[in-house]
């Protein structure tokens, strides 16, 4: 059998050089004009073409372009498809996705408040408040269903954009 002649091998890598090379390659891929943007996940963040979707927490995703904040989204999928719509120069579709995401988050917050006030009115025995908050809660839930359908429609449009 052959015996290895390498006795000492330096395992030190130039990590800064590797990082610069990786960033350069990512930049090249992000700038390419393709049908769909280059998408790559780095940790919890996602590169979508020239845009970056940063995870702030489980309920907030921030879209940035060259370190400039564009918008915060409350759903990761909405943020990704927003970037895809921007990449395809469909600003109207991107705006629809952003507005629907913002409205959905506000309505879900309202639903939580109405649900809590409804439970409190039951505990206090206030039938008028109970009826009012129950009606508001059901109205908000109907609007949430409608907005979710609207978001799904917009995301489906973003999936099948043709040049």
Q: What do you see in this structure?
A:
- There is one protein chain.
- The protein starts with 14 loop residues before the first helix and ends with a helix.
- With 163 residues, the protein is an alpha+beta fold.
- The protein has one domain.
- It is built from 4 helices and 5 strands, in the order αβββββααα.
- A 5-stranded antiparallel sheet has the order 1-2-3-4-5.
Task: Provide a quick synopsis of the model.
By secondary structure, the protein is α+β, with helices and mostly antiparallel strands. 59% of the residues lie in helices and 17% in strands.
DSSP summary: helix tally: 4
SSE topology string: HEEEEEHHH
- Radius of gyration, in Å, reads 24 Å
Question: What general outline do the C-alpha atoms trace?
Answer: elongated
Instruction: Give a short account of the largest sheet.
Output: 5 strands, antiparallel
Counting DSSP E segments of at least 2 residues, the number of strands comes to: 5
Number of domains: 1
Residue share in helix: 55-70%
Pairing-aware structural class of the strands and helices? alpha+beta
Distance between the termini: 61 Å
Q: What share of residues are in beta strands?
A: 15-25%
Any low-confidence stretches, pLDDT <50, length ≥5?
none
Strands across the major sheet, in which order? 1-2-3-4-5
What does the average pLDDT come to?
83
Describe how the helices and strands are arranged.
Elements (H helix, E strand, L loop, with lengths): L14 H17 L7 E4 L2 E4 L2 E7 L2 E6 L2 E6 L2 H12 L3 H34 L2 H33 L4
Antiparallel strand pairs: 1-2, 2-3, 3-4, 4-5
Helix pairs in contact: 2-3, 2-4, 3-4
